Amino acid sequence: MSLRKAIKSDASSIAAISIEVWLGTYLKRGVRAVFADYALDEFTTANVEKLISDPKQFTLVSENEEGIDGFVRVSSDSNAPVSGCSDMEISTLYVQPRHHGKGVGKRLLNAAVQHCRANNAESLWLATNADNDPAIAFYLALGFECVGETYFCIGRERYLNNVYSRHLI
Known about the structure:
Strand content: 25-35%
Order of helices and strands: EHHHEEEHEHEE
Shape: globular
Number of helices: 5
Helix content: 25-40%
Structural class: alpha+beta
């Protein structure tokens, strides 16, 4: 397993992992059109290519002998939904479920922390669904603390998200 900066040719793999992880994490009892439409509109090769090309986005992929198994994206100049957070956000950290527990997520997150430190960030923040117990336990174990709440909105519905921050200094 190796980590490297994402390149445009990774976009379709990152989009596919995004759909896999997002649907598997948040849609436990069936797929409604509003969620399917969101995933298929949001997680496209073209959208991922734009993010990879954006200088305010830093995307690393984890790659094994068969391909990409996870990625992390750090957004700079990102306003947190609660006060006291820096402008460095872990926008996305997705690892294919069959690779959970193998250290992929931890290596990606640690590399993201190093990137933020190299860019003189005092802290970084992220938001995760308040019902995503495995992700919450993962972030807490790696030094993040809950600093507030926000909502993820899709269609006419709102979903509670916790906001976490980690000091880097």
